[in-house]
Amino acid sequence: MATVRRHIAPWLIAAVMYTGGAVAFTSPLVSHLSSAFPHDHYDPALIAVILGWNARTLPMTRSWWDASMFWPVRGALSFSEHLLGISLLTTPLQWSGATPLTAYNVAFLCSFPLTALAAHALAFALLKRHDAACLAGCVFGFSPYRVSHLAHLQMLWAFGMPLALMALHRFAERRERRWLVVFGLAWLSQASANGYYLMLFPVLLAGWVLWFAREPGSLVPITITWAVASLPLAPLLWRYSTQHAALGLSRHRYEIEANSADLLSPFAASPDLIVWHGLSRWSRPEGELFPGLIAPALIAVAIVIAASKFRTIGASAAWRRSRVAALLIAVGFMVIAVEVVLLGPWRWVVGSSTIASASSADKPLTVSVALVLFAAITSPALRDLWRRRSVFGYYVCGAAAMLMLSLGPRPTLAGTAVLYRAPYALLMEVPGFSELRVPARFGMLFVLCVAIAAAIAFARLTSTLRPLFRRSVSAIAVVLILFESWPRVTLAAPAASIAALSAIGDRAPVLELPLGIIERDVAAVYRSLEHHHPVVNGYSGYAPPHYEILRIGLRLGDTSLLDELAGGGSLVVAVDHGEQFDRWAAVVGPRPIIADEGGWRLYRVAASASPARPTGGVRQPIVSVQANLRNDAVAGMLDGDVHTAWSTGRAQAGGEELSIDLGRPADLSGVRLTLGPFLQDFPRRLSVECSGDRHRWDTCWSGSGASLALRAVLADPLTATMILPVTARAVRYLRVRQTGVDPVNGWAVAELAVFGTDGRLSPP
User: Fold this and answer.
1) Which of 351, 487, 515, 762 has the fewest CB atoms nearer than 10 Å to its CB?
2) What is the SS3 assignment for 395-451?
3) What is the span of the domain harbouring residue 538?
4) Sites in the chain below the pLDDT cut of 70
């Protein structure tokens, strides 16, 4: 029993220390667990909503995927994280009576000691020293990088990664199968808590396998365990993939580049830090990768000492020559890059042939960096670390690799692109990586590697000290690490409830106006936790295609959108008295008021009569189309490709017109305008005039373009085909005129088609 107590006591002390540190670190949150969010009320509110949804809906069912936001789109949960791994803690709490807000805050607090203990366990498995392990726990569990993610619970929930690595190291050391079980559970827990770690952590794990487990005896059981543990994730990944494909959701490359780290990011810190807040001058969105000063300093000292003792042994002349050649060529390309920066682009022409040219510095600089990396990777020192399977070498190289990948596909320096391509561009060819918006989140894996490498460095540097003095030095280092990471934690009150919504007896969907403002949309989604109605508003990592049409149309005051949303049922519209009330009340119009209290007025939009819809027909040949703007581009809407389009090339001002000649009269049943990917450029209002002889023109249809566009994108998000119910006899000529006004967007048509009631043309 004495031996057991001696082994358990350090872990209990560490757990108490990390828990107490978390309470102090996040103060004053512990006294506001049920009344406030830490940091802000945007992402935390969304996460609380998802955790609440997980607690009251059976996961993996159809109703679970249909989260109560972005109504009427199905599968709204797939637009963001599902957070099932975190719900293993928060769902029992809510079943026991805790509110989603309280459950969120408990999970937030627990993330700090759990992450610190997991890093502590990993370092202890490697070093068998609690003093050095405590240093790793504090670096990873309370790092400045975590402070920059106080609003992202799923990013803070990172303890599965060090636990998985600890289990792999234990298995490599002892060959005990129980550690494979721990590895599988840790991986599954982590992957089901955060979609980013599901994609990013395998990169570090693959490096671990290549470094430590090259033999079949280790490689095969680890690979099988990893595959089996990943099986429960397959249905989730399949649903995410199919749902996003059905809605045409994807990440644009510029969005990924904008959310990549910068070369200055390791020196950029959150403004919420007390000591290092001055480093926020170099921060960019999610690019605050500063790991603190103590840990990198320890690593640097250990590397210098190790380098001074290293002796090159067995390096072949061929390898030496190849590295020298690579470095010389790298210098040459570096000179070219500097020349372009100083003197501008140049071209070397001999006769009619271009021998060489340089128009920008990023391409020659990319070649130069690639050659330097080749020389570094093939250096005797790194090959020696690889041969010896150095743990310190792995985590130092891992930190460098994770930092490099956090720079995204096109690294920048102070916002200016300096490399044409980076290793992350290769990762984007792997399925799933092109869906990740924030490569900078490799930063958490960078900090993990830094924490373990710093613990190893500390253990080496203090290995000759007496135990008591060594523990004193460790305590001082821990205090300094916590001191430089200490944040100012602000609290944010959640959105106030609307009592009248909870009193409504039916399950009519709710639209809160104004829509499309992040703060208002988050509040609307959060209030659904109380009133349980589906909500038209939404906030997540993706927005479904229809949402931008709805936002633009309501901003322009198009009241027909409410009838389109109500459809065959009804819709409750809540208008805030404190937010341009007259403007938004005018959008609702003379609808029945069902409540007016607490700063909100609630209207009911009754089911509307079904709008006229085309009855089908045969596509009619179009002889010619003339546009009064950019007539040279009309072929773009007649080529059968929805990715090419005619557009006005200017904001919609009214009077934009397309004139269509069918060649001979036909009895019409509809006109089809396909938006394709040009959703924001839908026509705000339309009128269609018909004529048989160009002398007499009759208006054969007019109405809201926004409501037609909304109907189109809800029916088929990939093509977004607007169908105008134009029914007229003996029509040869049509004028489709845009009559609305939008100060920002133009009008675009990806494909144009006209349909008749049958395949025969009426006699002229």
Assistant:
1) 351
2) HHHHHHHHHHHHCCCCCEECCEECCCCCHHHHHCCCCCHHHCCCHHHHHHHHHHHHH
3) 499-605
4) 1-5, 312-316, 351-352, 354-355, 609-616, 758-764
